[in-house]
């Protein structure tokens, strides 16, 4: 079931009512219900891949249990490797197998050989990259003795498959989410209302911003050769807002939905486009993934506490490149990761990566000129990296960038529609700027106290969501990862 | 929890009120179209309900109401015909129209115009709605909704009734800033459902890129429910003992040549005709001596001169089939 589908509009209220009214007797019953509805939610897309989630969950549950009891360090290491190889193996087969075979074939072709290798077209199971990382963090944390294993299989199954965050995160850590499955969950009115508000804001970003930006971003990226520098710039900017609206919108819907069931998930986006440097951007963009790579890849590699600058540079570039590759089996994602790493490198080598830790313009209505300049510069650099993320091939990305030097002509055929999208983006940015000290961009509803005015604002948002739904509503981009 | 549900219901009620207010505002565009005689389904359904007898019914999209002149059919075949074609009418809508017609009339012959692009379109909340809004009574409207809308579309219409009108927003913006917001008059409605257009397309207009440019027919792009409803139309006519003829109105030669695999389109529809032992007249494959810049009003519609030739040919062939 997609969040932006009609089915979800039916699914969510039904599950909500059953959860609080019918399956409220015991925690076990509620967890069982959550596992069932989560599997239904996932199986709606393709029930065959339910076996993969079940396999990953059961395997890591038992490995976790053994790791918890085992004292022999060799055996512990062996168990961890079983978990790593099994989980990353599945990810490798389903996500990267075709890519490696194709790349190998192309390499052989370069040397004049005709390998004639036929690859299987393997369907990528939705959300595999997310739940694999979530279960991996469980076994790694137990191995590091930072977490005690659970004896409750049902709770563990619910933790791995929890439907709001199953297919595109946030990637939760067992120490944060798993204990919530053992707590008696009382209905909290403020939490549920907050959840609905966050869902509403998430839908606004997905439907009004992302899906409408997608129309023009797709048109420009698919035919970049026909467009001049102004349109290409617009294309990159529209894609930047498409991916932000799409993914942060998804995260808001996921977090908001969890709140309806009494769960709190971690914040995944913290207004990344208001960042003043790349370091700050990466502390605010896809936080659950960035911190995962920090904790399970960057720090084990030595992190920033290494003796030489070359090692520090290697660690940084490696983590960014692997993170890029996590997004998809394509050289473009690796190039995107690498480019971000290169942009981040001067900051970390100069120890300036933690310069902008505070929220921009805290206590002020507007940013200073210097802050504004740095925000715009960071945004421009991020847009440049998004070109590699969005392009079909690296060659396309370079051609797209080369197009910025073309003739200065404007040939937009849908200028009024583009203007409307720009107005939508501006509204979102203003609202988020006003809420930048809050968890999400609509949390305190401009500080309105009266219920009528708040309901009025919610209604307007809902009217906008329905009114600006494009003909072709697209899937969430991060589903493909 | 009770407070949450009560407040949620209150909010939903407020939202519904605002929804209907928004519907009223967005709907003003179509009300203006009606005032200016631009929304033909209104005139057509009024005309239909006033009609005493319909022997021959023509169904289909705008190709249908712009290609087949009921007056010519009546005089050549000595029947009382009615053209129920409407803009972007999908086979799903055609089926609902047919069922509504059967509630009021007993035609002996149904002519269904098949246009491949319509099988790829799925905006029921617009093309079906234009018909629904003009039906005579509530039970007809409910019946039509059930046939023409999916559960999703019924749900959306109930919760956000303005949803199908959202394309009107741009026109209303132009109205607000005082610019011309109504579509240009593309033809005039005539009794019996035919829409007459004197306009002639220019060669330059034909050559501009459009939805036919390098078009490649692909069966997998066809909307499943439209295909299913084509079958429903066939079986309903069979069950009622009503003769059904499938037709395809002609495209300008220039447009036709843009389609890379027209034979596949023809064979697809011919397959249905053969399988159900019904006749299929494809005017694209018949020699009618139509000239693009004389007999067509735009890149895919006939003008009155072209429609006259095509209708005469249709009536002749229908007489032969009798």
Summarize the structure.
Chain A has 481 residues and is mainly α. In chain A, 66% of the residues lie in helices and 0% in strands.
Biggest β-sheet description of chain B: 5 strands, parallel
Approximately what portion of the residues of chain B adopt beta-strand conformation? 5-15%
Mean pLDDT across all amino acids of chain A: 88
From N to C, what is the helix and strand string of chain A? HHHHHHHHHHHHHHHHHH
| Cα-to-Cα separation, first versus last residue of chain B | 69 Å
Low-confidence stretches of chain A: none
Low-confidence segments of chain B:
none
What does the average pLDDT of chain B come to?
Answer: 91
Share of helical residues of chain B: 40-55%
Distance between the termini of chain A: 17 Å
Based on Cα principal axes, name the global outline of chain A: globular
- What multimeric state do the chains show? heterodimer
How many strand units of chain B? Answer: 7
Count, helices of chain A: 18
User: Can you list the strand order of the major beta sheet of chain B?
Assistant: 2-1-3-6-7
CA gyration radius of chain B, whole angstroms = 21 Å
Instruction: Calculate Rg of chain A over CA atoms.
Output: 23 Å
Helix coverage percent of residues of chain A? 55-70%
What does this protein look like?
The complex is a heterodimer of chains A (481) and B (322). Chain A contains 18 helices and no strands. Chain A has 481 residues and is mainly α. The two termini of chain A are 17 Å apart. By secondary structure, chain B is of the alpha/beta class. In chain B, the strands form 2 sheets. A 5-stranded parallel beta sheet of chain B has the order 2-1-3-6-7, with helices on both faces. A two-stranded antiparallel ribbon of chain B has the order 4-5. In chain B, a hairpin with a 5-residue loop joins strand 4 and strand 5. In chain B, helix 5 runs antiparallel to helix 7. The longest helix of chain B has 34 residues, at 2-35. The radius of gyration of chain B is 21 Å and the shape is globular. The termini of chain B are far apart. The A-B interface holds A 6, 9-10, 20, 187, 189, 192-193, 196, 416-417, 455-456, 458-460, 462-463, 466-469, 471 and B 1, 3-4, 7-8, 10-11, 14-15, 18-19, 22, 26, 123, 151-152, 155-156, 160, 162-163, 166, 169-170, 173.
């Amino acid at each position: 079931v997609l969040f932006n589908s009609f089915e979800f509009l039916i699914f969510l209220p039904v599950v909500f009512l059953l959860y609080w009214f019918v399956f409220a007797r015991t925690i076990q019953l509620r967890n069982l219900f959550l596992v069932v509805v989560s599997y239904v939610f996932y199986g709606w897309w393709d029930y065959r891949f339910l076996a993969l989630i079940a396999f990953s969950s059961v395997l890591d549950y038992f490995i976790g249990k053994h790791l918890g009891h085992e004292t022999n360090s060799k055996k512990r290491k062996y168990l961890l490797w079983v978990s790593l190889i099994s989980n990353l193996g599945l990810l490798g087969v389903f996500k990267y197998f075709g890519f490696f075979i194709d790349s190998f074939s192309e390499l052989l072709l370069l040397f004049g050989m005709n390998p004639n290798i036929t690859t299987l077209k393997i369907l990528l199971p939705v959300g595999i990259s997310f739940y694999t990382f979530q279960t991996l963090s469980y076994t790694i944390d137990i191995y590091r003795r930072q977490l005690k294993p659970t004896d409750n299989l049902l709770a563990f199954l619910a933790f791995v498959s929890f439907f709001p965050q199953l297919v595109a995160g946030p990637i939760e850590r067992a120490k944060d989410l798993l204990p919530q499955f053992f707590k008696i969950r009382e209905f909290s009115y403020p939490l549920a209302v907050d959840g609905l508000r966050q869902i509403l804001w998430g839908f606004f970003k997905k439907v009004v911003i992302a899906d409408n930006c997608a129309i023009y971003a797709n048109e420009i990226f698919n035919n970049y050769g026909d467009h001049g520098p102004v349109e290409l710039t617009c294309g990159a900017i529209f894609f930047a807002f498409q991916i932000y609206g799409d993914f942060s919108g998804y995260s808001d819907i996921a977090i908001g939905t969890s709140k309806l069931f009494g769960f709190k998930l971690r914040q995944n986006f913290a207004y990344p486009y208001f960042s003043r440097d790349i370091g700050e951007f990466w502390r605010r963009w896809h936080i659950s993934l960035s911190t995962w790579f920090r904790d399970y890849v960057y720090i084990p590699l030595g992190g920033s506490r290494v003796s030489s600058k070359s090692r520090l540079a290697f660690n940084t570039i490696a983590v960014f490149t692997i993170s890029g590759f996590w997004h998809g089996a394509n050289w473009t994602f690796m190039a995107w990761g690498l480019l971000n790493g290169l942009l981040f490198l001067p900051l970390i080598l100069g120890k300036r990566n933690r310069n902008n830790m505070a929220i921009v313009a805290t206590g002020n209505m507007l940013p200073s000129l210097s802050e504004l300049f740095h925000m715009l510069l960071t945004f421009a650099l991020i847009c440049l990296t998004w070109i590699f993320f969005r392009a079909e091939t690296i060659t396309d990305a370079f051609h797209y960038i080369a197009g910025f030097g073309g003739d200065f002509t404007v040939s937009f055929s849908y200028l009024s529609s583009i203007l409307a999208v720009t107005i939508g983006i501006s509204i979102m940015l203003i609202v988020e700027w006003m809420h930048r000290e809050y968890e999400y961009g609509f949390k305190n509803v401009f500080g309105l106290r009266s219920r009528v005015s708040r309901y009025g604002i919610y209604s307007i948002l809902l009217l906008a969501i329905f009114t600006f739904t494009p003909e072709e509503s697209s899937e969430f981009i991060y589903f493909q990862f | 929890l009770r407070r949450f549900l009560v407040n949620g219901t209150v909010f939903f009620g407020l939202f519904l009120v605002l929804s209907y207010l928004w519907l009223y505002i967005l709907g003003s565009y179509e009300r203006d179209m009606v005032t200016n005689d631009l929304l033909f389904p209104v005139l057509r359904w009024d005309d239909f309900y006033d009609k005493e007898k319909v022997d021959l019914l023509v169904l289909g999209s705008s190709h249908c109401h712009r290609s087949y002149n009921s007056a010519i059919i009546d005089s050549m075949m000595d029947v009382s015909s009615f053209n129920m074609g409407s803009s972007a009418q999908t086979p799903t809508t055609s089926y609902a129209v047919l069922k509504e017609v059967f509630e009021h009339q007993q035609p002996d012959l149904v002519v269904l115009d098949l246009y491949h692009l319509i099988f790829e379109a799925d905006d029921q909340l617009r093309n079906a709605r234009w018909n629904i809004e003009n039906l005579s009574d509530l039970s007809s409207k409910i019946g039509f909704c059930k046939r023409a809308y999916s559960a999703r579309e019924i749900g959306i219409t109930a919760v956000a009734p303005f949803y199908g009108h959202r394309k009107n927003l741009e026109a209303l913006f132009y109205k607000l800033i005082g610019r011309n917001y109504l579509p240009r008059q593309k033809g005039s409605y005539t009794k019996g459902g035919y829409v007459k257009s004197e306009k002639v397309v220019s060669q330059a207009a034909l050559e501009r890129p459009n939805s036919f440019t390098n078009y490649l027919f692909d069966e997998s792009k066809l909307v499943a429910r439209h295909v299913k409803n084509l079958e429903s139309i066939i079986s309903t006519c069979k069950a009622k003992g009503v003769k059904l003829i499938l037709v395809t109105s002609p495209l300008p030669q220039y447009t036709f040549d843009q389609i890379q695999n027209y034979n596949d389109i023809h064979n697809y529809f011919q397959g249905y005709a053969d399988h159900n032992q019904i006749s299929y007249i494809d005017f694209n494959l018949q020699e009618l001596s139509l000239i693009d810049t004389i007999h067509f009003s735009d890149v895919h519609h006939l003008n009155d001169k072209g429609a006259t030739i095509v209708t005469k040919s249709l009536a002749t062939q229908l007489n032969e089939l009798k």
